[in-house]
Automatic annotation (TrEMBL):
InterPro entries referenced in this protein's UniProt entry, alphabetically: PsdUridine_synth_cat_dom_sf, PsdUridine_synth_RluA-like_CS, PsdUridine_synth_RsuA/RluA, RluA_PseudoU_synthase
Coiled coil: none
Domain Pseudouridine synthase RsuA/RluA-like: 105-253
Cross-referenced Pfam families: PseudoU_synth_2
One GO BP annotation of this record: enzyme-directed rRNA pseudouridine synthesis
Classification via PROSITE patterns: PSI_RLU
Any one GO molecular-function label of the UniProt entry: pseudouridine synthase activity
Catalytic activity: a uridine in RNA = a pseudouridine in RNA
Listed name of the protein: RNA pseudouridylate synthase
Organism superkingdom: Bacteria
Length: 312
């Protein structure tokens, strides 16, 4: 662990809803006289009056707990912490069962509609935030990510010292992940078939593009149809690469978009509070050699297809 990482200032505020206070490093710039001046510019979502209210309430502090007030002088290079404001979020009405826990990792069975980590408009209603709060594990961090709409096995580390070894497993593709999906039946996948595509994620677009004419594929998925269900089928999907929305974009490109997908082949408008139609994509098993014990491990989801939703 680097020296700078070891001595990273800690927040004087406790986590709220599993979320840390905002950490703000004061840049080397002569534009501001007080910390308040910088925060008014930096925290653009707040009005100057709202910034003043946070300062007056004691919601801004230095790492040692010293309150930052309206007249606290600006000192470049220092760090201050600001308690967060939480916008209302629809409560995802599913639990997060624990599959496995030891001193290093937590493996859970993530439900649909729950983002893995805080981002954008999904902050409190995320797996990381809820598990930190519910299990009193404030240092919990994901070793990898599952799409918000995907269910199944998710691995998290319980302390920063274990984050690197487990994240590296996923980054270097030393993990075997098997997904199950329900989608329209295709005729040619009764045996495992390797599908190579070039996928492109354009900034600002929700869906991943399939570049059919591109000569160099950058995604590899192994697909096998394991069961017919009328006009639909259950598939076993094994991603060899890890592109954004790889399984969803690949199945849609093949003419069998995964049932319940609101993005492929076309985007549907679904309310954030609508939990009635889950994506029928399940991270069923995950296998790897534990980087600490060197023992092979396998974790399996307790969920089954079809994944059930909740009517409003």
């Amino acid at each position: 662990m680097s020296r700078s990482r070891r001595h990273r200032p800690r927040s004087p505020f406790p986590q709220e809803h599993g979320i840390d206070a905002m950490r703000i490093s004061l840049p080397h710039n002569d534009s501001w006289t007080t910390v308040r001046d910088h925060l008014v510019e930096r925290l653009s979502a707040l009005t100057p009056d709202e910034v003043d209210a946070k300062l007056d309430a004691g919601d801004v502090a230095e790492p040692d707990g010293t309150q930052v007030g309206r007249s606290t002088p600006y000192v470049a290079g220092r760090v201050v912490f600001v308690r967060r404001e939480f916008a209302p979020e629809p409560v995802v009405p599913f639990g997060i069962p624990v599959i496995h826990e030891d001193e290093r990792i937590l493996v859970v069975d993530k439900p649909p509609f729950l983002a893995t980590m805080p981002r954008g408009s999904h902050i409190v209603q995320t797996a990381v935030a809820r598990l930190r709060d519910e299990l009193d594990l404030p240092l919990l961090s994901p070793a990898h990510r599952l799409d918000r709409l995907t269910s199944g096995v998710l691995v998290l580390t319980k302390d920063p010292r274990w984050r690197g070894p487990y994240q590296e497993l996923f980054a270097t593709r030393r993990v075997v992940k098997t997904y199950l999906a329900l989608a329209p039946a295709l005729e040619d996948f009764d045996q495992t078939t390797d599908v190579y595509l070039h996928l492109t994620k354009v900034h600002g677009e929700h869906a991943t593009r399939v570049e059919v004419a591109h000569p160099e594929p950058n995604s590899h998925t192994r697909i096998r149809r394991v069961e017919h269900r009328g006009d639909d089928a259950r598939y076993e999907l094994r991603p060899v690469t890890g592109r954004t929305h790889q399984l969803r974009a690949t199945m849609s490109h093949l003419g069998a978009p995964i049932i319940g997908d609101p993005l492929y082949p076309r985007q549907l408008q679904v309310a954030r509070s609508d939990f009635s139609t889950p994506l029928q994509l399940l991270a069923a098993t995950i296998e790897f050699v534990d980087p600490v014990t060197k023992e092979p491990v396998s974790h399996r989801s307790g969920r089954r297809l079809p994944v059930c939703g909740v009517s409003s």
